[in-house]
Amino acid sequence: METERLILRPWREEDALSLYKYAKNPAVGPIAGWPPHTSVENSREVIRDILSAPETYAVVLKETNEPVGSVGIMFGDSVHSADMQEGDAEIGYWIGVPYWGKGLIPEAVNRLLRRCFEELGVKRVWCGYYDGNTKSRRVMDKCGFKFHHTEEGKPSPLGDVRTEHFTLLTKEDFLKDSCKETKLVYALRPLEEKDILEMQHLFRSTVLNVNLKDYTKEEVADWASCGDDLSHWKELLSQHHFIGAFDEQGNMAGFSSMNKGGYLHSMFVHKDMQGRGVAILLLSEVEKMAKAYGVTEITSEVSLTAKPFFEQKGYKVVKSQKCRANQLELTNFVMCKQIL
């Protein structure tokens, strides 16, 4: 199975070195109830005895072809809550510390959820985490799981007694959320001078509201003032190919741009349209433009706010820098992505 950044495949004994590299870290296993690996041979035994189970997959980065974590679907006797019924499944996961916070496990779990509900006929999927494992809980939240119940006095595989919290996602809720996503349809079209006022308003509103969480009030005010000059927008439109996304009412939901040199100048989404797939759609479109121009690498200067999104889409930080907005210098990142 594949996702945008990952290959999910069965574990192989030759993966033992990579498995040991990440599973030996005491920050990874114990919080999930299993001991750190002690050697490459120990990792090889785990692959043979545990990770060879059906529906257990190595999380392999396409970029490096290296396994960096594991995900799996468990059925029947493998699941461990008294509330689980016949036909239910449970999903488990972990990933190496260097890859925490990059959205890789939610990406992998969402693919397993599709397998459960669309391919295996599962009606309900469970996910559990021990008390204190907030990172694991955040993965569940991102993937749509809802808190179901808590079980106290649970013996862990390490021999201690813990409190475990269980979350649940039904097929009905999964499909409902999927339908919500697919119903958000945006029309794309090139932007022209007649669109400048709407672009200007969207830019200013987004910077002052969305970017405020990463910059000071003085910084966002200075940044927003860069859009006050209409002649500046006309100059940008003459130098870059701008594309806009519009909702069903014809309102601008966001815009982005690309030039013939592969420079992605802009990516702004309306403050009220955040998290609705607008940036994903726009990025896909401007990447197509870059390929049509024949460039092999896209570069961009990305804000603190946008950096996690671009990282999730395969962009790498080249350097951190201070860049002048209007009067003030703000932190941003030069990022790039190979596309051909």
Describe this structure in words.
The protein is an alpha+beta fold and 340 residues long. It folds into 2 domains: 6-182, 3-Layer(aba) Sandwich (Aminopeptidase), CATH 3.40.630; 184-338, Aminopeptidase, CATH 3.40.630.30. It contains 10 helices and 15 strands. Strands 1-2-3-4-5-7-6 form a 7-stranded mixed beta sheet, sandwiched between helices. Strands 8-9-10-12 form a 4-stranded antiparallel beta sheet, with helices on both faces. The longest helix has 16 residues, at 104-119. It is elongated and about 70 Å long. The relative contact order is 0.09.
Enumerate how many helices there are, as a single number: 10
Largest sheet: 7 strands, mixed
Domain tally: 2
Question: Which of globular, elongated, flat, extended, rod-shaped describes the shape?
Answer: elongated
Structural class: alpha+beta
E-strand count: 15
- List the uncertain runs: 179-183
- Give the terminus-to-terminus CA distance: 22 Å
CATH architecture label of the largest domain: 3-Layer(aba) Sandwich
Strand content: 25-35%
How are the strands ordered across the major sheet? 1-2-3-4-5-7-6
Helix proportion range: 25-40%
Q: What's the mean pLDDT score?
A: 91
CATH-level-4 superfamily name of the largest domain: Gcn5-related N-acetyltransferase (GNAT)
| Radius of gyration using CA atoms only | 23 Å
CATH fold-level assignment of the largest domain: Aminopeptidase
**SSE pattern, N- to C-terminal:** EHHEEEHEHEEHEHHHEEEEHEHEE
Quick one: CATH class of the largest domain? Alpha Beta
